[in-house]
Amino acid sequence: xxxxFYLGRKVALGSSGRKASPGVKVATAAIALSIAxxxxxxxxxxxxxxxxxxxxxxxxxxxxxxxxxxxEGDNIITLTPTLKKILDxxxxxxxxxxxxxxxxxxxxxxxxxxxxxxxxxDRQTREFLNSNLISGSIPDxxxxxxxxxxxxSRMAAxxxxxxxxxxxDCYFINDDVKVRRLKIAGIYDSHFDAYDDLMVYxxxxxSEAFTGLNANQGSSILITTTDFxxxxxxxxxxxxxxxxxxxEGLIYKNYYLENAHVQGANYFQWLSMLDTNVIVVLTLMxxxxxxxxxxxxxxxxxxxxxxxxxxxxxxxxxxxxxxVFIYLAMRVAIVGILIGNLLIIGVxxxxxxxxxxxxxxxxYYIDFVPVELNWVAFGILNVGVVxxxxxxxxxPSRIISNISPSSTMRSE
Length: 412
Fold this sequence. Notes:
By secondary structure, the chain is of the alpha+beta class. It folds into two domains: 193 residues, no CATH class; 204 residues, no CATH class. The strands form three sheets. Strands 4, 5, 6, 7, 8, 9 and 10 form a seven-stranded mixed β-sheet that branches. Strands 3-12-1-13 form a four-stranded antiparallel β-sheet. A hairpin with a 4-residue loop joins β4 and β5. The mean pLDDT is 84.
């Protein structure tokens, strides 16, 4: 007969149908709370990474190509057939587009402000602005490239006392002064103050009119890769490709490459600090859960001391009795894990859809607590906790070997 199975059911369920002891309830609650905190920590950090990365990429791109400072007085990129061929030959490049970014001045009768006027040409930027739009709409320049509509941030609009559909004069100063009266078609708010303070978006035709560039020229090339996680290696690979092409005389300019990790270094360093915090939280919660579960197991063993002595007197070996109590403790742990999963995943789903829990955007760059439900990560966490709990319970279960049938019966 399988002692572990038979005796486990007897101890776990109890012959008299008694309710679980306070120690078991505390252990179950501790495990549920621990797993809930761990899942929430992972979901929130993954959510922050997704949101911050999307914001950084919204203002830049995976990889940005510009002209090296060595090319004095010539910072214009021309998308020549050779350069286009080099970019098209790289398997990891999903898409690329020319961008014009020029310094300009917005002026109202009462105030003025320096900004960077950027072309709104690539799909990624349009999607980003649309997701952060708080008023108006994103102009469709494909229908009318001569439209003098712009999209600006709420911060810049507030500084100049402007709102949607207002008009503002834009000055570009080079060899001479050029001015256009622009209409505010949309206002966005990304909560990235360093970018919101400066970035204004308009049509390519507007930027070409200010700079005199043609359709194959720009101040940079924005590249979207197939996998953002590999941009560091791919940036180095593309830079080496350009160096080789320059040495072979295929291109005549030295191009400089930066990726999102460099341009958004401050934000990604902040995210790396969150990773450290999560590791600390996971470690503490695992320790709390395991210690509480061990305490609960010891409480059950002491509560069933007479029963242990009795079944050992009837011939049950120490190993089988230990299996019974490990089984019971694992049952408590799994119940706690299931309860914790159900509760926290429900809360996370609610938060993901309704953004009920808010944040101070000036400190966290986001006005709500972001979450990302990564089922693979949650599954790995749950399996890891179960395995760790099982290994933790092996040592305290050895106390059963020290319980003598004769001494327990005498004490009774």
